[in-house]
Description:
By secondary structure, the protein is of the alpha/beta class. Helices cover about 25% and strands about 25% of the residues. It has six helices and eleven strands. The strands form three sheets. Strands 5-4-3-6-7-8-9 form a seven-stranded mixed beta sheet. A hairpin with a 2-residue loop joins strand 8 and strand 9. The chain is globular, with a radius of gyration of 17 Å. It is found in: Cytoplasm. Its main location: cytoplasm.
Amino acid sequence: MGGAVxxxxxxxxxxxxLKEAQxxxxxxxxxxxxxxxxxxxxxxxxxxxxxxxxxxxxxxFHLSAxxxxxxxxxxxxxxxxxxxxxxxxxxxxxxxxxxxILGPFGVNHGVELHSDVIEYAKQKLDFFIRTSDSFDxxxxxxxxxxxxxxxxxxxxxxxxxxVYCGAGVQKEHEDYMKSLLKVGxxxxxxxxxxxxxxxxxGPVAWETxxxxxxxxxxxxxxIHADSGKSxxxxxxxxxxxxx
Length: 243
């Protein structure tokens, strides 16, 4: 998925192209995209493709196309101090951009199935904090990542102001995804091949908007141990992760 805008020579030129094509429409989102170099989240052998509007996948590592992340960031309508949950948090690229907007009083959690991807995300986060010139220009809500299946979040976990799922969701899991959201919150996910924005307007009231057609790998179903019990992921705003 991708190819909607021209490739850039560097990160800033890529962002210029996304703005010109109206994928990036607000100043907060533009600032976050410019502050984090997309190439930093690629493996070295693949950095030549970092500024193309294309998805990238190598083993368990994956980045969506820039045009998709732009639509996601805009649809989330992020504001300082909100709580954010990233399901399938991957390399941490999106979570780090979100953290630049949430600021010091926000909450920034990610759930990722693959432990090697979690380690990679932590390395990239550390590199950003240590080396980026832009880090000092923002009050950063540092993301926290936990290994687990995003379909196994404990029912007693907290609800969030903003939720994004980075894998294809089928209709059977729509209500589960909605249950993670506070009243007034926004959920963005690929639902039945459409990037979809769902706003929780009341305890049992929802507004749904289809943004654009997308193609995402589907959510991986949980694999239960011999005991038949799943390994629940416990998420709490006050204390962070309890696994």
